[in-house]
Write a structure and sequence with these properties.
This protein has 991 residues and is an alpha+beta fold.
C-alpha cells in the first residue's frame, strides 16, 4: 500500500465529524450522517411526523426504505449529499415512496429504528457474512440495481481524457499556491561581539622624542606601533614618577595627551638624554662611507680588535658579561701585590693568564693557591671568586656538562664570606648558570636574592638583560622585548642601557616593527656614535632595519661596512646575499650577480648561499611570488633545479625567514610540474607551519588552484573517492571554500553524491539556488531534487520548488519538477493541491509514460472517491496501460486494476469487471490475502451476473485448496449458507 494511500486512510480515520447537510426549504427532508471506525449512521429528519417505513436489503450493496403510499409527499429530497467521509454509505436517493441507500461494500449488516415522531435512524455496520446475501426467490418489485430504473434510463454523458495544451516556451513552474513553509528554521540573532580584553597599560621604551607603544601582551601582528612625538613640558622627575605609578599621559600623534584608558594603553618613559657634545657629533657614523673590500686592511683591523678589551655581550646570553662586568670584581678591587708577596703575585699571574684566554693555566695556578693551608683569608676569598670566574668563562659553551663543578665553585666562594662585596657578582653567575641549563626556578631564586639583598648593585640590571637574551634565543620575542624594556626603564642611569636598547632594537626587528626599531637604532647611534667600532654587529642590525624600511642605499652602506670590518663573521653569507638583493633592487645586475656568486662560492651549503642560488635560478628577487610570475621563471631556469634549492632551504634551515618563501615556491614549482597532490600538500604544510606569515594568502591560492586542477582530472576519470579524500584530508580547502570555482564545487557535490554522502553534497549544491537561474543553479537543482526524492524528503522538495518557482524552465525540466512537487504534496497529505498538478500532467501527452501513469492513477483515485465511476474507469484504464508499458510500480498497477474492477462493477458492467479481476489475479501470488480476497470478489461478480455455477466453482476451489484459512472458511460458509437457503426455499415451496 502506497504512502499516499496510507495518508488518505489516516485522513479518513480523523473524519468522525458530524456533517449536517440541509436540503431545500422548510418542507425538505434533512439528512445527516455520523461515521465511526466500523459503522455509519444515517439520520433522516422528516418535516412531518408519522413516517414509518419497512427496511429491507434489496441488492448486494443496497438497502431500501419503503414508506406507506403518500408518506413522502411534500418532502423535498436533499441535493448533493456528500458521503465521501463515510466508511460504508456511498449514496442515497429518493424514488417515489422509497429511499434507496447505496453501500460501498456488500459485506455489511444494518438495523433501523425511529427516533421521536419525525426522525428515523439507519445504522450500517461492517459484517463479512453480509457478502453471502442472495435475493429472496420471487420477490416482486425489488430494485436490485443502482441507480433506480428511471435514473438508469437517462443517457450518460460522454467522458474523455483531459488534454493539456502544449507550452514549449521557457517559463516558471505552473504550480498552485504552495502551502506556508513546512519546516522553518528558528531565526538566530546576531552573535554578540566578543568581549574586548583590557589592554595592558605598560610603559614602553622611548627616546627623548618619545617612542610609544605596548608590545608585551598582544600578538605581534596586532601590536600597536611606536610614533614619534614631542615630550610634554612636565619636569623629568614628574615624568619618571608618573611612569612608575602607571598614570603617565600618552601623547597622541597630534601632540594632545590621552587618558590612561585611551588608545592601546601606551605610556611614555624618559631615558637619560644624549650629552650635548655627543648630540652635536651624532651624525658622524651615519656619514661614514663604506670602504671597498680590502682583506688585508680588514685583517689588520681584526688584529687590533683582538687586542682590545672584550665588549658587552649582545649576540647571545652565552657570551661573557658586558663591559666592566667580564672581569671579576677582584681584578678591580685587589690592591697591587707587593713583590715579596709570592702568593699575591701568583694570583696576579693567574689572572693575566685568564685575560689572555689561557684558562687551563689560570685554573691550575688558582687551584694550587686554593690548596695552600696558610693562604691569607682575604687572598683566599679572592682566589675562590677568581677560580669560579675562570670556570664560568672556561665552560661557557657547555655549562650543562660542568654544572656541578661551576656551581660548587661559586657556592664555595660565596660561603667564604657572605658579606663580601663580591657576593652579588657570584649570585649573578649562579642565576645565569641555571638560566642557561634550563633550571628556571633556581635562576629566578638567585636573581631574586640579588635584587632584594643588593638592589643598588651594578649587576642588577644585567638580570633583565640575560632574561632578554634567554627569551630572544628561544624565539619568544615578546618576552624578550619586555625584559629589555624593563632594563631601560628601571635602570635609566645604568651603563648597560646601551645593551638593553640594542637588544630591544634587534627584538623589534624580529617582531617586524621596523619603524620603531629604526628610531631606537637612531637613538643608539646618536647616544653612542662609536658603538659600531666596539660592536660591529650594530651595523648588521642597522642594515636590516634600513632594508626593511625601504632605505636600500643606507642598508647597502651598513652592510658593506659591516662585511669589510668582519668578513668572516657569523651570517656573512646572509649579508652577501642581502647585498646582492640590494644591488638587484638598485638595477645594478652585474654587481648583484657578483655578490650572489661570492655567497655561493664561499658558503654553498649555508643559508645565504642557498638564497643566492635561488636568486640566480630565478634571475632576481621574487619575495612576493605569484603563480603567473613563477611559472614564467620556471620556463627558463638559469641555475640548478629550483626544487632542490627550495627543499635544501626547508630541510636545512627550517627556522630561517627564508623557509616560508622556499615552501611556497616549492608548492608553485610542483603546481607548474602538474604534480597537483604534492603541490596541495606543500601549500597545506606552509599554512600549518606559518599560519600568520604574510605569504599565507598565496599559499591558499596555490592550494585552491592545485585542488581545482586535480578535481578536473579526477571528475573526468570518475574517480570520486579520491576527490572527496583529497578535500577532506586538506582542511585548508574547507577554510577557503569560497575561493573554489563554481564548477569545482559542483564537481565536489557530485563526488559526494556518488560516494553516498548526500548531506555534504547538499551543502555544496544548495548555495547555487538563488533567485535567478543559471546553468550551475540548474545542475545544483537537479542534484538536490534527486537527493530529496531518493530520501523521500517531501517537505524539502516543496520548499525547494518554492525557492525556484520563478525560474524560467524549459518544457521538459518544468514537467519533471512539477511532477516531483505533485508527488511530494500527495505524500504530505495535501491532496487538493496535488490534484491540481496531477490534472495538468494527466493531460500532458508529452510527459513520459513513467510519470504520466502516476498522474492518471491519482486522477482515477480522485474520481473513484467522488463516485465518478466512468471517469475512474477511463483514468484507471489509461494508467494501467502506461504502468505496464513503462514497467513502473507494480503496486500502483494493481491499484489501478482494482479501481477498474470496482468502477466497472459499480457501473453494472460485470463482464468488464470480471476481466479486470482476472488481470488483477495474474499479478497476485496464490495464497496471499489479495489473491484470496480477489477470488471472493470474482465470485461476487459471477453471482451478480447470475452465473451461479461459476460462483459455486470459484468458492469450492477456494474452500478445497485452503480449508483452514480465513478465506477458505468464508468460501465454505457462503456455500453452506446458499445450500441452506436453497433447501429452505424448496421446503417452503413444497408446503
Amino acid at each position: 500500500m502506497s504512502s499516499l494511500f496510507c495518508a488518505g486512510i489516516r485522513r479518513l480515520l480523523a473524519a468522525a465529524l458530524l456533517a449536517v447537510l440541509t436540503a431545500g426549504p422548510a418542507e425538505a427532508l434533512t439528512v445527516s450522517s455520523v461515521t465511526r471506525p466500523d459503522m455509519d449512521s444515517l439520520i433522516l429528519d422528516f418535516s412531518k411526523p408519522g413516517a414509518s417505513p419497512t427496511m429491507a436489503r434489496t441488492g448486494p450493496a443496497e438497502i431500501t426504505l419503503t414508506f406507506p403510499p403518500g408518506a413522502l409527499d411534500g418532502e423535498q429530497p436533499p441535493e448533493d449529499v456528500d458521503f465521501r467521509s463515510s466508511r460504508l454509505i456511498d449514496a442515497m436517493a429518493v424514488a417515489g415512496d422509497n429511499v434507496v441507500v447505496r453501500l460501498k461494500t456488500d459485506a455489511f449488516g444494518f438495523v433501523g429504528w425511529p427516533q421521536g415522531e419525525k426522525e428515523l435512524k439507519l445504522q450500517v455496520y461492517r459484517d463479512p457474512a453480509g457478502a453471502n446475501w442472495t435475493p429472496p426467490a420471487g420477490a416482486p418489485g425489488q430494485n436490485t440495481t443502482w441507480p433506480p430504473a428511471e435514473a438508469a434510463a437517462k443517457p450518460a454523458s460522454a467522458v474523455t481524457l483531459p488534454v493539456t495544451p502544449q507550452n514549449n516556451k521557457p517559463g516558471p513552474l505552473e504550480l498552485p499556491p504552495l502551502p506556508p513553509a513546512l519546516a522553518g528554521n528558528p531565526a538566530t540573532g546576531p552573535a554578540a561581539p566578543p568581549a574586548k580584553a583590557d589592554g595592558a597599560k605598560e610603559p614602553f621604551y622611548a627616546v627623548p622624542y618619545s617612542l610609544r607603544a605596548s608590545a608585551m601582551n598582544v600578538a605581534a601582528d596586532k601590536a600597536p606601533i611606536l610614533r614619534p612625538a614631542g615630550l610634554d613640558a612636565a619636569a623629568p622627575g614628574d615624568v619618571r614618577a608618573a611612569a612608575a605609578t602607571g598614570d603617565a599621559p600618552v601623547a597622541s600623534p597630534s601632540g594632545a595627551a590621552a587618558g590612561a584608558g585611551g588608545g592601546a594603553g601606551e605610556y611614555r618613559v624618559k631615558l637619560p638624554p644624549i650629552p650635548p657634545a655627543v648630540a652635536d657629533a651624532g651624525g658622524a657614523r651615519g656619514a661614514v662611507s663604506p670602504p671597498p673590500p680590502a682583506p688585508r686592511a680588514v685583517a689588520k683591523a681584526e688584529g687590533k680588535a683582538a687586542a682590545a678589551p672584550p665588549v658587552a655581550p649582545i649576540g647571545s646570553a652565552a657570551d661573557a658579561l658586558p663591559p666592566a662586568a667580564s672581569a671579576t670584581g677582584a681584578e678591580a678591587a685587589t690592591p697591587p701585590a707587593k713583590e715579596e708577596d709570592h702568593d699575591a703575585n701568583t694570583l696576579v699571574a693567574a689572572q693575566a693568564e685568564k685575560l689572555a684566554g689561557n684558562f687551563g693555566a689560570a685554573r691550575t695556578m688558582m687551584t694550587d693557591l686554593k690548596n695552600k693551608k696558610d693562604l691569607a683569608k682575604d687572598l683566599r676569598e679572592e682566589v675562590l671568586h677568581s677560580l669560579a670566574g675562570v670556570l664560568v668563562d672556561m665552560y661557557k659553551d657547555e655549562p650543562a656538562a660542568h654544572y656541578d663543578e661551576i656551581q660548587g665553585a661559586l657556592q664555595e666562594a660565596i660561603n667564604t664570606d657572605t658579606n663580601s662585596y663580591r657576593v652579588p657578582e657570584a649570585l649573578l653567575h649562579l642565576g645565569m648558570l641555571n638560566l642557561r641549563v634550563g633550571n628556571l626556578p633556581e635562576a629566578k631564586g638567585y636573581f631574586n636574592v640579588l635584587t632584594k639583598k643588593y638592589p643598588a648593585d651594578a649587576n642588577v640590571p644585567l638580570i633583565n638583560f640575560y632574561w632578554g637574551e634567554y627569551y630572544f634565543d628561544r624565539g619568544d620575542y615578546k618576552k624578550a622585548a619586555e625584559e629589555y624594556q624593563g632594563l631601560i626603564e628601571k635602570f635609566p642611569e645604568s651603563k648597560y642601557v646601551r645593551e638593553g636598547a640594542m637588544g630591544l632594537a634587534k627584538t623589534l626587528v624580529k617582531l617586524g616593527r621596523y619603524k620603531e626599531a629604526a628610531q631606537i637604532a637612531d637613538y643608539i647611534g646618536k647616544r653612542w656614535p662609536r658603538y659600531y667600532v666596539e660592536f660591529p654587529g650594530i651595523l648588521r642590525i642597522d642594515g636590516d632595519i634600513a632594508y626593511r624600511n625601504g632605505d636600500v642605499k643606507k642598508a647597502r652602506d651598513d652592510y658593506l661596512t659591516f662585511y669589510n670590518m668582519t668578513p668572516k663573521v657569523k651570517d656573512a653569507d646572509l649579508v652577501l646575499a642581502r647585498l646582492g638583493d640590494i644591488y638587484a633592487k638598485l638595477g645594478n645586475r652585474p654587481a648583484a650577480v657578483d655578490f650572489y656568486n661570492m655567497a655561493v662560492k664561499d658558503y654553498p651549503n649555508e643559508e645565504g648561499g642557498l638564497i643566492s642560488k635561488m636568486r640566480l635560478a630565478e634571475q632576481g628577487v621574487h619575495d612576493q611570488p605569484t603563480i603567473s610570475e613563477m611559472f614564467s621563471l620556471f620556463d627558463k631556469p638559469q641555475y640548478g633545479s629550483p626544487d632542490d634549492i627550495y627543499e635544501g632551504i626547508i630541510r636545512d634551515h627550517p627556522n630561517s625567514p627564508l623557509a616560508p618563501l622556499a615552501q611556497i615556491k616549492l608548492a608553485m614549482w610542483q603546481l607548474y610540474r602538474q604534480n597537483y597532490p604534492e603541490s596541495l600538500k606543500s601549500a597545506a604544510r606552509f599554512l600549518e607551519r606559518y599560519p600568520k606569515n604574510e605569504l599565507a594568502p598565496k599559499a591558499e591560492e596555490v592550494a585552491v588552484t592545485a585542488f581545482e586542477k586535480m578535481a578536473g582530472d579526477l571528475i573526468a576519470h570518475k574517480d570520486y573517492e579520491r576527490l572527496v579524500a583529497a578535500y577532506k584530508d586538506n582542511p585548508i580547502l574547507a577554510a577557503n571554500r569560497g575561493m573554489l570555482s563554481e564548477q569545482t564545487r559542483l564537481g565536489l557535490a557530485l563526488a559526494y553524491l556518488r560516494t553516498g554522502q548526500t548531506r555534504q553534497a547538499l551543502a555544496e549544491a544548495l548555495p547555487f539556488l538563488g533567485p535567478r537561474e543559471n546553468d550551475n543553479g540548474s545542475m545544483a537543482l537537479a542534484m538536490a531534487m534527486s537527493i530529496y526524492q531518493d530520501e523521500r524528503n517531501w517537505r524539502e522538495i516543496v520548499e525547494l520548488a518554492r525557492k525556484v518557482q520563478g525560474w524560467k524552465f524549459g518544457p521538459s525540466q518544468r514537467r519533471n519538477l512539477e511532477f516531483a512537487v505533485a508527488d511530494a504534496l500527495e505524500n504530505l497529505g495535501d491532496a487538493d493541491r496535488a490534484r491540481q498538478i496531477w490534472r495538468k500532467l494527466a493531460g500532458d501527452q508529452a510527459l513520459e509514460a513513467g510519470k504520466r501513469c502516476y498522474a492518471l492513477y491519482f486522477m482515477a483515485k480522485e474520481a473513484m472517491a467522488r463516485k465518478e465511476l466512468e471517469k475512474a474507469e477511463l483514468y484507471a484504464g489509461e494508467a494501467a496501460f502506461l504502468f505496464r508499458e513503462s514497467g513502473k510500480d507494480p503496486d500502483k498497477l494493481k491499484a489501478s486494476l482494482n479501481i477498474l474492477v470496482e468502477s466497472t462493477r459499480g457501473l453494472g458492467q460485470f463482464s468488464k469487471a470480471l476481466r479486470w479481476a482476472e488481470d488483477y489475479a495474474a499479478l497476485c501470488k496464490e495464497g496471499d490475502d489479495d489473491w484470496a480476497s480477489n477470488r471472493l470478489r470474482t465470485a461476487a461478480i459471477q453471482r451478480a451476473m447470475g452465473d451461479m455455477d461459476g460462483w459455486r466453482k470459484t468458492l469450492s476451489a477456494m474452500r478445497d485448496s485452503a480449508p483452514d484459512s480465513f478465506y477458505g472458511r468464508m468460501a465454505a460458509s457462503d456455500l453452506a449458507t446458499n445450500g441452506l437457503q436453497n433447501r429452505l426455499n424448496a421446503l417452503t415451496q413444497a408446503q
